[in-house]
From TrEMBL:
Residues 33-328 form the Aminoacyl-transfer RNA synthetases class-II family profile domain. It comes from the Bacteria. Gene3D superfamilies: Anticodon-binding domain, Bira Bifunctional Protein, Domain 2. It comes from Croceifilum oryzae. It is found in: Cytoplasm. The gene is hisS. NCBIfam families: hisS. L-histidine binds at residues 86-88, 117, 131, 135, 262, 266-267. This is Histidine--tRNA ligase. Belongs to the class-II aminoacyl-tRNA synthetase family. GO terms for molecular function: ATP binding; catalytic activity, acting on a protein; histidine-tRNA ligase activity; transferase activity. Keywords: Aminoacyl-tRNA synthetase, ATP-binding, Cytoplasm, Ligase, Nucleotide-binding, Protein biosynthesis. Pfam families: HGTP_anticodon, tRNA-synt_His. Homodimer. The lineage of its organism: Bacteria, Bacillati, Bacillota, Bacilli, Bacillales.
Length: 427
């Protein structure tokens, strides 16, 4: 009964495995919010579930995600619903559903939360994982592509993560891609029998995906395949050059990789990935994204472009742990109150309430521990102040307050306790 669902994990208040500690998550999440908001992206929250059709249409029915990885179920009214395997489709659904396209553009949104894919569990690959995503709608300006890429880099930088590489490519507009598909099919056809099974299946449906096949022999064959660069329209080519120039202005180091393909069907033009070394993990991609200029229309909106990325927070955390990045400490306990009998416990409740209302954190014993054991708890909690409320103190309306850093101890009248701790704490 106490077994957790395969591929999922708890984030614990305290845990030996560092990156699964709440404190680490809060650090990553608050840094993400700060950076996204500095770029004027606003937070949006959409449901964890959507109609299955949205992902089939949006992400694409020939993708691994839709073909084999979705958690899909039928609700009580017979509708097919899926846990979101990624964020973009739901965000676009919301953008269209609320007619946000009719407002002044661009619209810049970000989101954070769990995604679900039924994948084989490995280091850095889970069935419930979390993404930071950003999506910007309504502009074709390649400067926006570059700024979206730079936002991700600034996020990594502010976390203290080193060695993140950006790879970029342009996967063309639909016309360039159609020509490229033909060229790829012509190239791979003679090798058809040698290709891995999933590559064979994709040959006529989505031959670009063969380029990132994990099968060694297929990979070798794919090395000789034509490059998309030869098939890009003037416009796509200019676009790629512009994004690169803007990345230079922004000081983002990147590598152009004409073999970079993404595992989702909605991409047009710019495609990119963030990579960093995570020992023990097969996947070194900590994030990826690009343009999806046809998706808003596909989901029922007007012809309006979009660009964004998704970053896997587990992978970011694993990399932070690997690089021994120091995560800010949780805030300390301000006051631990030591009590003895019923009467002092009763009074302590009043005093604790006052401290908490004044914005201080305060704690006491609930297990009738002896004084010495209570002191131990105060120590373990690293309390800044220990306040001792004995019978004598109670009779005199005072409490003994010990500053655990300086070691000084004073009797403080009840009605001055809050001010005393606030003042002492500020010293
Ligand atoms: P994606 O490449 O499928 O793109 O996922 C983005 C990132 O999520 C990956 O680079 C990886 O770090 C993380 N990720 C994916 N699957 C798992 C998993 N099973 N376990 C742990 N981490 C995982 C998208 O999802 C697009 N929606 C990104 C995007 C937004 N493109 C435009 N806008």
């Amino acid at each position: 009964m106490s077994k957790i669902v395969k591929g999922m994990f708890d984030v614990m208040p305290k845990d030996e495995e560092n990156w699964r500690q709440v404190q680490w998550w809060r650090f990553v999440e608050s840094t993400a919010r700060t950076v996204a908001e500095r770029f004027r992206f606003q937070e949006v929250r959409t449901p964890l579930v959507e109609y299955t059709e949205l992902f089939k249409r949006g992400v694409g029915d020939t993708t691994d995600i839709v073909e084999k990885e979705m958690y899909t179920f039928t609700d009580r009214a017979g509708r097919s619903i899926s846990l979101r395997p990624e964020g973009t489709a739901g965000i676009v659904r919301s953008f269209v559903g609320h007619k946000v396209y009719a407002q002044p553009q661009p619209t810049k949104w970000f989101y954070m939360g769990p995604m679900y894919r039924y994948e084989r569990q490995q280091v850095g690959r889970y069935r419930q994982f979390h993404q930071l995503g950003v999506e910007a709608f309504g502009s074709f300006d390649p400067a926006l592509d570059a700024e979206v890429i730079a936002l991700g880099m600034q996020f990594f930088e502010e976390l203290g993560l080193k060695g993140v590489q950006v790879e970029i490519n342009n996967v063309g507009d639909p016309e360039s891609r159609a020509r490229y598909f033909e060229a790829l099919i012509a190239y791979f056809e003679p090798y058809k029998e040698e290709l891995a099974e999933d590559a064979q299946n994709r040959l006529y449906r989505n031959p670009m995906r063969i380029l990132d096949s994990k099968d060694p022999h297929t990979h070798e064959i794919a090395m000789g395949a034509p490059s998309i660069l030869e098939y890009l329209s003037e416009d796509s080519r200019a676009n790629l050059e512009a994004v690169k120039q803007y990345l230079d202005i922004l000081g983002v180091n990147y590598v152009q990789n004409d073999r970079l393909v993404r595992g989702l069907d909605y991409y047009t033009q710019t495609a990119f990935e963030y990579m960093v070394d995570i020992p023990g993990a097969q996947a070194s991609t900590i994030g990826g994204g690009g343009r999806y200029n046809g998706l808003v229309q596909e989901v029922g909106g007007p012809d309006m472009p979009g660009v964004g990325f998704g970053v896997g927070l587990e992978r970011v955390l694993l990399a932070l742990e690997e690089q021994k990045v120091v995560v800010p400490e949780p805030s300390r306990l301000d006051c631990y109150m030591i009590t003895f009998d019923q009467a002092t416990k009763r009074k302590s409740m009043e005093l604790l309430a006052e401290l908490r209302r004044a914005g201080l954190s305060a704690e006491r014993d609930y297990l009738d521990r002896k004084m010495k054991a209570q002191m131990k708890v105060a120590d373990r909690e690293q309390a800044r102040f220990v306040a001792i409320l004995g019978e004598d103190e109670l009779a005199q309306n005072t409490i003994q307050v010990k500053n655990m850093e300086t070691g000084t101890q004073e009797a403080v009248p009840f009605d001055q306790l809050v001010t005393y701790i606030q003042t002492e704490k500020g010293r």
